[in-house]
């Protein structure tokens, strides 16, 4: 029985690690996307469309692939996040001549969807209180960014390139912090498990013969 419980704990910790990697890879991709936009201020609408499509599609594939081995609480979040990224990626790939304004609306809608999922994930994913709060705040920032985009679209995506880059960097760094916190959570659970005393069978004392 004890070996069965140990095995179940190891499987659960492995699943948490996979989810942590999915969140961390999405955060890393977001940081790379943001840095690329800052380093390429003269990017064209076509190039921005391809880069954004590749970013969302790749992160969607990672999340969806991880969902198959995730726990029940994590699976829904990863599936929804993966399908969102894949759908947005396919949308912009099949619409390469999208206008700057339309692309900005797509980015805004993606930000709102990502923000809603982050808030849900802050309650459903196995996170500590601080990391859960970080993910929740990240979701609120993402939704606020999307609302600003819809409220004041301006001339299109190129007109607010710096804002898009800042959004990608902020969410990416937050997700990396959450992913690192998830690793620490797994390590703490492992240490706690290893330090807990093993239950040993009690010896029966011999009763004096009468």
Contiguous runs where pLDDT drops below 50 for at least 5 residues:
1-14, 183-194, 196-205
Secondary-structure class: mainly alpha
**How many structural domains does the protein architecture include?**
1
* Alpha-carbon Rg, integer: 22 Å
Secondary structure: helix percent: over 70%
Report the β-strand fraction as a percent range.
Answer: under 5%
**What overall form do the CA principal axes indicate?**
globular
**Main β-sheet, in a few words?**
none
Counting DSSP H or I runs of 4 or more residues, the number of helices is 6
Q: Order of helices and strands, N to C?
A: HHHHHH
Total number of beta strands: 0
Question: What is the terminal separation in angstroms?
Answer: 38 Å
Features of the shown structure:
disordered N terminus; globular; 79% helix; single chain; mainly alpha; 210 residues
What can you see in these coordinates?
The protein has one domain. The longest helix has 38 residues. It is mostly helical and 210 residues long. 79% of the residues lie in helices and 0% in strands. The chain starts with a helix and ends in a 15-residue tail after the last helix.
